[in-house]
Design brief:
It is a single chain. It is built from no helices and 11 strands. The chain has about 120 residues and is mainly beta. The termini are far apart.
Length: about 120
């Protein structure tokens, strides 16, 4: 049973930074890709950033230039560095990992950006 545990969320002022972590219970080298999503109550979950096993990254237009996804294979952890945060970034952030069998989701971590 693969588990993903997110951490690093919190309350920050606009313009500030946070780094989210997603720790996997197995080697992340076994995943085809890992992604960060976010969701606001009453809205659909949206893709924020992704990282393929080959190292290719992709970002939502709304976060390009501000957010960076990266990984530490030795720690089985994927990160989301979030800079220049805006109130519109307020959401619960989820980590998703995909292997040949299925998708795996964490429980999420709340990010709140005050104006």
């Amino acid at each position: 049973q693969v588990q993903l545990v997110e951490s690093g969320g919190g309350l920050v002022q606009a313009g500030g930074s946070l780094r989210l972590s997603c720790a996997a219970s197995k080697s992340i080298l076994g995943f085809n890709g890992m992604e960060w999503y976010r969701q606001v109550p009453g809205e659909q979950r949206e893709l924020v950033a992704g990282l393929t096993s080959g190292g290719t990254t992709h970002y939502a237009d709304s976060v390009k230039g501000r957010f960076t996804i990266s990984r530490d294979n030795a720690k089985n952890t994927v990160y989301l560095q979030m800079n220049s945060l805006e109130p519109a970034d307020t959401a619960r952030y989820y980590c998703k990992a995909t292997d040949v069998l299925r998708d795996y989701w964490g429980q999420g971590t709340q990010v709140t950006v005050s104006s």
